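Quick one - inputs below.
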Amino acid sequence: MKFFLAALKRDLLLVFRHRNDIINPLAFFLMVAVLFPLGVSPNPVFLAEVAPGVIWVAALLACLLSVDGIFRTDYDDGSLEQMLVSSESLLLLVLAKVLSHWLISGFCLAIISPLVAMMFFLPEQGYTALILSLLLGTPTLSLMGAIGAGLTVGLRKGGVLISLLVLPLYIPVLIFGAGTVHAGAMGLPIQGYLALLGAILVLSLMLAPFAIAAALKISVRS
Amino acid sequence: MKIKMPRWFYQLASPRWFYEFTGALLPWFSAAAILLLVIGTVWGLVFAPADYQQGNSFRIIYIHVPSSILAQSCYMMMAVAGAVGLVWKMKIAHVVAGACAPIGASIAIMSLATGAIWGKPTWGAWWVWDARLTAMLVLLFLYIGVIALNSAFENKASADKATAILSLVGLVNIPIIKYSVEWWNTLHQPATFTVTEKPAMPPEMWVPLLVMALGFYCFFAVVLMSRARTEVLEREKRSDWVKRVIQSY
Amino acid sequence: MLEVKNLFCERDERVLFENFSFQINSAEVVQVIGQNGSGKTTLLRILCGLSDAYTGEIYWQGKDLDEVRDQYYQAMLYVGHLAGVKGSLTAEENLYWMMQLDKSLNKCTIADALKQVGLYGFEDVPCHSLSAGQQRRVGLARLYLSSAPLWILDEPFTALDKKGVKEKEALIANHIQGGGSVILTTHHDLMIPGETIRPINLDEEAVA
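Output:
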């Protein structure tokens, strides 16, 4: 636990030293969302209808964009090698890194999501569903994304490749996440949806760290 | 993680033994594939009765359904072979897994194409966001990811292991993806009639379907073995037995 | 301490070594020599478990390395080409993290180690504003901190000045006298006071 906290502290400190890393995914999220009214129609009825999907797609892309760098600098400067020759648990370390990634991506996105929801005329009763679905869904995105990042960290053409690997895996979270917001906006109960998102999160929390650790070992040893 | 396995298991791990063993199997599977596919095609296209609703257009089922089933089995086989390769450090298993990916992707494309061709007379559109078709499309995306990752590594050993991990992650996700897509489909399109779920298909219709499915599996085995054998030769090209094999041609 | 048996490794269809066996005993300096591309770094990475492109057996204290990996990593210090130093963290923060990763970095305090490598007064400066040599020293400060018996050093003297190299040589001598052992690669003419250096020549291991 002490090691987990130390690893988390280090990662957050690194983020704090590069404050742009916090702003970039958020700005990206806002910009992608803004493209839809500009590209399709600013009609409030239309926007309210597509809001759940658009906000979720934008959040998903913002997570994907930022997860690519989760191990990149550690790989480039040799820190990752040192992590692999450590007797400390690689699983804990990986979890700490994913948690710190989630705090700067998914968590912040959930907090600013009402802003976009307002611009999209999402009915106010859907706000809770939006925030809760993002809070429960985006950690899964970070975990799955980290598998892709671990597999591609040693490759030069990481960026596009990671999208190909990870986007299909994001589909269930997108479906249930946007579904939650739809239901919430219509005033329907959302507990069932949240339970599904939670179940997916628990499953990925149990399995993904092993896949990430194995992926990192493969990337460093290649 | 070392689990003791019977002797044939380790024999199979020897590239040379694998090459000779599959070489012996290949003619049998080829013959079976040709026979079953010819019988199934003629039976399905000519002798099976026409559907009372869709007429003759339903006959594409004899290609669409076997390819859909095979595309899914192929992914499972790829992931299981990859897992065997990871756990027992068996190169042959990785070779088999690597051979599965392009075959599976082609079959998934075939399933999607036949689905589209079937969709035109049935639904009046080439593409409909039907749950099965959408899930197949996602499966194709998973295959594309595996192929892209495999070709991105310069080092074969790393490529093998990385794709094995990715296909295992995909395997765990496939049921979740299927479930989510089905759920999404009922949410957005209630009461589309699904053509593939005809509970009362008469034997004259499903027996040729079964023959076709078996034929597809045999065909898959033939292509898989051929690809894997070529890959084995490529990887073992400096060993003496491969040099002898090549000289004998 | 560390014993390697029948190591076989090939890279890009070229055999680097075959039937290669050697051991590293306690209180010994082993220098891996060979031309560029002869596999010096690869060998050290194999010894660290950072490469599995080999067949053969490696034993640590007589036991298969795979079975005692955790003990091995506690008893081993690896300094690679890359220093593992984060530019946006200060020297002190970097070393603090390294101590979290490696519990054997406990011989002295961070302040002492930084003083030894001549970075006293620089502990609060982010490492990206240090020179290449100074950054290297941050990584090498681990040598002063380490109580691990086995050191695996890949080109540890890169970017160091003459004085820095002398100090590191003295440090290695000290480590050996304490019963530790070192395996390293370097292009410098290594002079360890009071110790003989055993060479392992990879050019002789290469198979044409």
